[in-house]
Amino acid sequence: MRQRAPAVLVRGPRARRRAALARALWGGAEAALTLGVVLSLLVVHQLWWTNRQAREGARREVAALERRWDAAEPGASSGGGSATGPRAGPEGGADGGGTSRAEGGTERPRGAGRSAAPAPGRAYAVLRIPRLGLAVPIAEGVGRRGVLNKGYAGHYPRSAPPGGVGNFALAGHRNAHGEPFRHLDRLRPGDTVRVDTAEARYTYAVERTLPRTSPGDGTVLAAVPYSSTHPGHRFTRPGHYLTLTTCTPAFSSRYRLVVWGTLRAAAPR
Q1: Could you tell me where the beta strands, DSSP code E, fall in the chain?
Q2: Contacts of residue 187, Cβ cutoff 8 Å, sequence gap at least 6
Q3: Is 153 helix (H, G, I), strand (E, B) or coil?
Q4: Cβ–Cβ under 8 Å, residues 160 and 113
Q5: Are strands 255-268 and 99-101 parallel, antiparallel or unpaired?
Q6: Which of 174, 201, 256, 264 is catalytic?
Q7: Is residue 230 annotated as part of the catalytic site, yes or no?
Q8: Beta strands in 175-254, from DSSP E residues, in sequence order
Q9: Which residues on neighbouring strands pair with residue 94, listed in sequence order?
Q10: How far apart are the first and last CA of the chain?
């Protein structure tokens, strides 16, 4: 009996196109799945892991600062340097010891804010906001890598020191990297903001909030702060101001949210 030769399957142009399309779709599906996994891991890293790392680091730094202050001799400088000598106080006199008047007639330690400036990136104070349950280090500078990404509040270098005459201005992340200013929009007039240093404890009261302004609205950091973009938001006389800034809306850096406060009380540690 003669055996039949096996049939040879010959694909036409249409079948070949279908096979090529199927391979392309399969490859695209694999690439999309891989990309989705990678993006998911990036989101987890950005929104969870960086927060966990920064918060733990910030807590350790707050504890380390407080241990150093408790162990230090009275009168130790918060900036790690010696005092720079007499300096004009809020009434125009020299800070030479004792107390002076802050906003609203509050007694204020003389010599407050006169320490040599801390080194860039160095934590030297603690910011506490009871309404937000927040306690984070304050470091010199507003660089991302050296300060903000550690979960710290960053001190604008050309602004006043804690408790000093002028505007003590801070920046902080709203999302990721500890996001210390995540709920800054929850602050209301009268809420307290405390700044602890090696020398003194300063209590500010929130006065007003600028919900949204442009990143270029630099006058919010002026010694007597105001908004050049929103003229209705301004202070008009010298004082002891606090400014807190962060990005807004959440998960965006398009605008800036600004909270202003004034010094209400100060006491030596």
Answers
A1: 99-101, 107-109, 123-129, 134-140, 153-155, 166-171, 192-196, 200-213, 240-248, 255-268
A2: 129, 131, 132, 193, 206, 209, 244, 259
A3: strand
A4: yes
A5: unpaired
A6: 256
A7: no
A8: 192-196, 200-213, 240-248
A9: 88
A10: 110
When pLDDT is cut at 50, 70 and 90, the band that residue 17 belongs to is: confident
CA dihedral 150, 133, 175, 48 (to 10 degrees): 70
Strand 166-171 versus strand 240-248 pairing type? parallel
Catalytic one among 108, 155, 173, 177? 173
Cβ distance 95 to 86 under 8 Å? yes
Instruction: For 173-213, write each residue's pLDDT tens digit.
Output: 999 999 999 999 999 999 999 999 999 999 999 999 999 99
| Whether 237 is catalytic | no
Beta strands at 123-129 and 255-268: parallel, antiparallel or unpaired: unpaired
Q: Say what percent of the chain tops pLDDT 90.
A: 63
Decide: 206 and 184 in contact? Cβ < 8 Å. Answer: no
The SS3 of residue 41 is helix
* Highest mean pLDDT, choosing among 47-56, 80-89, 176-185: 176-185
Task: Decide if 155 is catalytic.
Answer: no
Q: Which residues contact 198 (CB under 8 A, 6 or more apart)?
A: 68, 69, 72, 76, 77, 78, 124, 269
CATH superfamily of 47-79+99-268: Sortase (2.40.260.10)
